[in-house]
């Protein structure tokens, strides 16, 4: 099933557009990242302007039910192109309908077409269901992730 095609299960995946800002904002909030419509529109604009990023929106019956962000980059350590899932979320009422797996298949397909040798994703250590989901989709624990906020 390719991008823009509706699967037999009724899931359609397409690139997000500026007009999707309200849906993107809501999905990012579900993921735990507060965002309003204007902020989402700005983020979509940044992604659309960057040929190494994609933002996919999943729909069922024309209603947004999930999103996935993808970034392609060169890995100095690996000496190859690499892909990173920057966000993946499914509306709670749409979970267990194949939306997350469909989004994952689409970003993996895009990554392969771009020549990426590897794809990675991080999730909070407290998100047990997300960790189980990724493991169930063939992802394995690969590294310990550290972060530091760079404030004033």
Structural class: alpha+beta
Instruction: Give the biggest sheet.
Output: 5 strands, mixed
Overall radius of gyration:
15 Å
Going across the biggest sheet, name each strand in turn. 1-2-3-4-5
Provide a concise account of the structure shown.
The chain is α+β, with helices and mostly antiparallel strands.
List keywords for this structure.
single chain; 152 residues; alpha+beta; 5-stranded mixed sheet; 32% helix; globular
Can you characterise this structure?
The protein has 152 residues and is an alpha+beta fold. The chain has four helices and five strands. Helix 1 packs across helix 2. The longest helix is centred in the last third of the chain and has 15 residues, at 99-113. It is globular.
Strand-helix topology:
Layout: E1 11-15, H1 21-31, H2 37-49, E2 53-60, E3 63-75, E4 80-90, H3 99-113, E5 119-121, H4 128-136
Parallel strand pairs: 4-5
Antiparallel strand pairs: 1-2, 2-3, 3-4
Helix pairs in contact: 1-2
């Amino acid at each position: 099933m390719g991008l823009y095609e509706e699967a037999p299960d009724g899931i359609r995946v397409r690139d997000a557009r500026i007009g999707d800002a309200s849906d993107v904002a809501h999905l990012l909030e579900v993921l735990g990242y507060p965002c309003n419509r204007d902020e989402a529109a700005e983020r979509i604009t940044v992604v659309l302007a960057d040929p190494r990023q994609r933002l996919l929106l999943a729909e069922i019956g024309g209603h947004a039910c999930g999103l996935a962000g993808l970034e392609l980059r060169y890995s100095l350590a690996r000496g190859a192109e690499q892909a990173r899932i920057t966000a993946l979320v499914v509306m709670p009422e749409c979970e267990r309908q194949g939306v997350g797996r469909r989004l994952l298949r689409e970003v993996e397909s895009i990554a392969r077409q771009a020549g990426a040798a590897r794809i990675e994703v991080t999730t909070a250590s407290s998100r047990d269901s997300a960790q189980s989901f990724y493991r169930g989709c063939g992802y394995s624990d690969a590294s310990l992730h550290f972060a530091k906020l760079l404030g004033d």
